[in-house]
Amino acid sequence: MRGVGRGTGQIVDAVEEALSPEEARRVIRRTFRMLRPYRGRVALAAALLVVQTVAVLAGPAFLRYGIDHGIARRDLGAIDRAGLAFLITVLVGFVVSRAVIRTVARVGESFLRDLRGRVFRHLTTLSLDFYDREKAGVVVSRMTSDIDALQELVQQGLVLFVVNGLLFVGAVVVLMAMSPVLALITLAAVPPVVLVSRWFRRESNQAYLDLRDRIGDTLSSLQEGLSGVRVVQAFAQERGQISRFRSASDAQYAAHLHTISLQARFFPAIEFAGVAASVVVLVAGGLMVRSDAVTVGTVAAFVLYLNNLFEPINQLSQLFSTVQAAAAALHKLYGLLDERPVVAERPGAYDLAPGGDLTVDGVTFGYGGAPVLHDVSVEVRSGERVALVGPTGAGKSTLAKLMARLYDPDAGAVRFGTTALPDATLASLRERIVVVPQEGFLFNGTIRDNVAVGRPDASDAEIVAALERLGLADRFQSLPEGLETEVRERGSRLSAGERQLVSLARAALADPAVLVLDEATSNLDPGTELAVEAAMAELMRGRTVVVIAHRLSTARRADRVVVVDEGRVVEEGTHAELMARQGSYAALYASWSQEPGAATADP
Amino acid sequence: MLGRGYVTFRSARGSGWRLMGEALSPYRSVVILGSLFAATWTAAKVAVPSIVRVIIDRGIVPGDSGALALGAAVLIGAGVAQAVSTGLRRYLAFKVSLRVEADLRARLFAHVQRLHFGFHDRTQTGELMSRANTDLQQIQFFLVFIPITLANLLTVASVAVVLLLTNVRLALLALAALPFLNLGAAWFSRQLHPVVLALQERLAGVASVVEETVAGIRVVKGFGAEGLQQRQLDAAAEAVYRESMAAARLRAAFLPFLDLLPTLGLVAIVWLGGHEVLAGRLSVGELVQFNAYVLMLIWPLRMVGMLVAQTARSAASAARVAEILETEPAVTDPSDPLALPDGGGPSGQERGMGAVRFEAVAFSYGSGGAAVLDGFDLDVAPGEAVALVGPTGCGKTTVARLLPRFYDVTGGRVLLDGVDVRRLALADLRRAVGLVFEDTFLFSDTVAANIAFAHPGAARETIQRAAELAGAAEFIEELPNGYDTQLGERGFSLSGGQRQRLAIARAILADPRVLILDDATSSVDPTKEHEIRGALAEVMAGRTTIVIAHRPATIALADHVVLLDHGRVVDVGTHAELVARSARYREVLAEAERRDEAERSLAAADEDRVGAGS
After folding, report:
1. Taking CB atoms and an 8 Å cutoff, what residues of chain B touch A76?
2. Which of A217, A321, B88, B494 has its CA 20 to 30 A from that of A442?
3. Is A281 in the same domain as A155?
4. Of the candidates A5, A63, A289, which has its C-beta nearest B489's C-beta?
């Protein structure tokens, strides 16, 4: 469907469904395992973080020392000592916090770099059944938005999260050390604050999930209104579209405002808790000063430490959603890493013999659901050219894919020579049997890179030789930048026909014994159509060929035609034999020939 | 063309500021109220350390429990005032900024919906998406800061005054470093922005390797090219690493520095403040108060610094939005529209309506572009069906677009039932002209809603009848929820032929006087084409129809054929007559056929996996 279903670029606020405690524990354990290679730096970062926290917490302690030892005893020396010590601590804190940022970034970013590589490597080993099952967008999002959520944590939140946690713990420890009684009185304010924070976290997570959906609705309504604007105008439905969009947009506004109203209740509550706690400290402290249980300096330090008690709670509740999103992302990534490729190399696999017959023996196969192929047997003798023919959805493509072991059959076997394909090394398999898909799929890079996909180590001479074999060397070398021409994204700089030619040259360089061809059906530009046909003929020469035929001429030129219908082989023979039989092949032929122009198309 | 480089920056910002001011003006009173709460918040916040000082100096140090109790009560009061005002300030600030964002979003959408085809031809959807999305967000970021910025400036000023009144020497020392905090934050924000953009680009680089590999996974597997892609990914990931580390170095250089400045002020307070207390120029309470005030200034100063950088970005965003809003629609309703002659029923068939006439029409896309039509004349009688045939680029699609005024002619005129189309209200005109496009656009809505697009209130029977006529009823009834099946993004997807039949049903339901079929069968599998042809013949019966086609079978639906070349009519006749007498006609058909042949197949694109429910 055009216009609908295309994703949009925006990454909505990172909110995720929360993991269960058990899942969270597993994620944490595994992350620690994954961090093992970096443990030296992790330890360094942890040590530096502790030093930084101590430096922050030292400030009020020096103030207290200054008041109690300097001011109370009128000792200038004590004041100078406190001031100097404070200054040194501050400078140490400054130096250390620079090192913290750099060290944490280095650990976090190299972890992410390696994770990207690892997840991607794993993705490329997974077999096609995985790609059939999972939507491409979801697979891509594992490598993009999920890892980006982690990146966000590394860059913005991780240091803050740890520092605030340490600050809170440190502040509690220091307060207890200064005056256990006053500390306990002060800490009485903490449980309500924690309870309120938990309420806020839960509510706001829910509210953000809701907001994310609303933003998604607005964006798709927007996208649709823009891509469909011509239809909207043609049917004079602007008004309807506008009101549809406005209600999506208003729903987003309301959802967003709801998240704000939660914050507008939570943040003031925390602020008030801070003030209330100061009142408690001042009143209780004041009474205790009178009974000489604590000093004035201690009370002053307590008031200042309150900041280190409540601010971390506040910060942690705000950071929590980032951490949660990162945990959810890790959970999904670990799930992906646990995915096992179905088409994998068996232990003890050996290289395929250089040549042989390709035998499909009693194969049944379905894409996870109902079988698409039922007990299919086909034999392709070495050097033979076989055309697979049949209506849409008959299973021709599936059969071709099984022949190249892009999938493994549910029952039966595919053999090359005497070796069942699963017993062969994947490298030798991909060398002997090459699939050329219907559309020339090009990667970002030069023409040379694209030809060399199957053999990245090929020399220039080998590449030119492969092009020459198909009669294409001049065509591409005559481009202004020759083989170094960048094809751009998906080969957009070349025409469909030229892309097909590059794809054929790729197969020629790979020089396989067996070629599995999915014939192009889509419109080729007239300028390249002949070239494609010639190159195809050249490529097939001297090889075993299985071709999914979409044109009569191809079927007629084949040594043998295999007609597939509803997942079974219904007819087999040469074109002439099958025409004489007056069966389904003849019927297919007839239905095609009735189309106007068919007679001229295939003389 | 829209884009960052289009308008000069200064004038752009002017229009951006105007837009923000204008969008904000309905909510002036809320902004003022929010700012009042912000001021209250400031006052309460600034009062707290002073109250604490009084408690320490008058209550705790002399051991006066009366003063202690009074101070505590005042402090609680200030705490309540602070909490209430901070909550309301935040809520109101967001309410206004989000409301403005939503208003502008709706306004932008409505405006763009009414902009002419020419605008959409040269503007990419992604570009407009980012205007309505990122740019509006940037505006919201700025607006939400207005009350808090006022509060912050107020905080800085009043704290400075309180400190100076308490002890000038200490105040100057403690405050000396703080302006650098402001400058540093602004500088940091400006430095970081390009690095963040570069990082986003590197991340996009990773995404494109992944997308390419996933899209081409069959090729990657087929050739065993996993290693090649892995190397590319590793390079992209390394680039992300390097850019991230650059950002980290920048943060490492500045963030600790921003922390250091106010802390140096605190050191000065402990050290020199201690001396001042001993010299009897400062009380212990004042010392603690100084400390608290310096801490209080850190965030406001940092935020003001960051806001400087944000302001520039928001103004630029607002300017880009203003640019679109200022684009005038080129095709508009006439000031006093004429009515179409009454046709009895909506389609006008009963009274023989639906006459179309092109008189000496000239047209080119964009001023100064090559003429697509030049002296083009065409007369279609009510109820008649005409096929427009011609080589690619001859202007036949343009003809179809001029009748419903997707574009206006540059010369001559187009008449519908004797009225110049420019004299009709656009809604009337477009209700009278129905189109079936080459690409069917379906909305993510139910099947029924897609068919009833022209008349959203249409009865279910009307919808079903339209579907039946279009030959769509059968497959619709087999869908999981029949006519209520959701299509699109989160719904069901249909095949090309099915989509095409829905588009035809949509046109049938619209029941127009004139129907235009713009290459409506070309994307349909030829083996299925005859079914659609049947549906088309049904709709065309008795209705003025313009068919743009190149397949003889579709052309055969028309009463006669108009052959176009280079923007002019070169021949008119029946299909058979033209085949017999016009070499150019035969040439055009053969050329179209050759293009079509490439698509033609024993069976169309192999779609095994569709059946497997992948």
Report:
1. 274-275, 278
2. B494
3. no
4. A5
